[in-house]
Fold these 2 entries.
Entry 1:
Amino acid sequence: MPYVGYVEFNVPDEGQTAQFYKAVFGWEASEMYPGYLSVTSGDEPGIDTGIARSEDGSVSTVATLLVEDLDAAMAKVEEHGGTVTVPRFPIPGVGSACYFTDINDMTVGLWEADSSAG
């Protein structure tokens, strides 16, 4: 069953945001790729966090669900009234992802793990 794999903070300045969370909570962020930082929970309870530069400068928090079959999950989203807003895209060495809005216009991410993704 899909579960929240990580939470993503979309912000205008990912570096400044990472510095804030390091100062406040001691979070260590590392660059996954330009414009995207990752904070792992390590051995502590909780889920990982991504800090992403938003393209339009907006601020949002997005829960991202881990699914086994991204294409099937995207089809079900649309079948039940949701809209895929950002189609499938690769995350090199990690997997593939997409974003959709649900029937309440809330943005949610989907992620299919695949270490061979390129």
Note: Residues 5 and 38 are 13 Å apart (CA to CA).
Entry 2:
Amino acid sequence: MTGNALPGERERCVSAGMDDLLTKPIDLGVLCETVERWTHGKQPESAGVRAATAGNSGDGKTGAMGAAPTQFTESARGATIGGATPRISVVGREYTGISPTPEKPPATPPPGATTDDGEALIDWQRLEDTSMGIAALRGALVGAFLNDVGPRVDRLSEAIQARDPRRIEFEAHGLKGMAATIGATRCVTVFDKLERCGREMDVIGATEAIERGRSEVARVRHYLEDINRQQLAA
């Protein structure tokens, strides 16, 4: 898994002896297809075949990194069983089908949905794409964010106080990925800046940026928790 999606990266990985490659941010459809391909005995037979699968599919359509478009199986789609909502385990936690996000973006954004400059707190289309339109998975992703983002921000603050650039970069990178997964674009922006601060050993810049990070996270958390309370009360 890599954040490097530059041309030729797949070929370099295959030449080094890897079997496959996933690029971030993760497309769950591609992830499911890749896992199913490698666990159901449908692996490419050689490095040459692997490299070929990264190219054009033959019909002019390509998917991520040039791969053929993903064909979802029922398990990848998260089909319900007997009408029951699937239960999805995420990082050792279990979330039921209660989704703390609406089925679709509200026609009229509720109070707190946007910032003072009119920018949306959540990119709903991004969240819909990440969860493949599966309500239970959407709820699990948002639930994981709400549970984990606070402790992760605390660890980032500790890294800044310890003046440890490598830890700053590591924690900020993780937070950026968490925010991108649920479409919290303003959080992505500030944690991307903090990640650069760590990489460039700019502890002073990180010290100045962390409070904005806390503020943006608080906005998103309050917004999503308000939606969840409204749905539970309905």
Note: The radius of gyration is 20 Å.
